[in-house]
Amino acid sequence: MTKSASLSIIHNKYLKTLFCVFLSALLQSFCINVFITPSKLLSSGFTGLAILINKISSLFGFTIPVSLLVLILNIPLGVLCFRSIGKKFVFFSILQVILLSIFLNFHYTLLFDDLLLNVCFGGFLYGIAISLALRGNASTAGTDFIALWVSNKIGKSIFEYVFVFNSVLLLIFGYMFGWKYAGYSILFQFISTKTIDSFYKRYKLVTLEITTYHPKEICKAYIKHYRHGLSEVAGIGGYEHKELSLIHTVISFYELHDAIHLIKKIDPKAIINVISTERFVGHFYRQPLD
Q1: Mean pLDDT of 146-155
Q2: pTM to 2 decimals?
Q3: Which end of the chain is more exposed for a tag (fewer CB within 10 A), N or C?
């Protein structure tokens, strides 16, 4: 691949990330102003913490804007994690937070007066907003930064502690502002979490079975672009009775589209069978966030 082609790919990836981050911030601000705030709900993570602090401050006769709080809570954490979890990832995540802070000052038209409709539609769209940021190889910052930073330090996931953090927020929220709204907030967060799980497939694995007459070229290009192992089995085509090869590899769903494009570019007649992988035992290289 030429240097100009490589630069073009990097440029396109940055544009894609920027586009995803912009849409994510816009949709997240829409959900907060149209569904969360009017329905007196609480979202998860540092955005939820910002909303909770905003509500508590209003009890003391002054109000700290949510748009300001998301910056105060997230930017220092982003600076702390800048070297640990990927510069590009942190940069675009902080950009998402800055755009969110700006978009929160926009005025949106309310859609529903019904609390349950706001919970269901809001939870779904809020999950889409977070999925957009993740799909662009960024995040909505906050607890994502903490979880990734600590995971890199100790080598294990701490998302169960993130769950405890959100639970504590809900307990404080329910005690101070009513258990009814805390209960609806749990439903809101459940819907948004299930939506993220449905739309964001970075950690899902798939098996590729590639039937081709050009195994050497495909293997060489694949190894150059990906760090996953692959195996090649010689065979005979049942229709033309010509020698061919069956290449077998496991890849993340996140890389699937680019891998198929790479294979088809080398061999347009290649047959690619994509199989969902429920469990994979062995070492698997996962592409860094940056």
Answers
A1: 61
A2: 0.73
A3: N
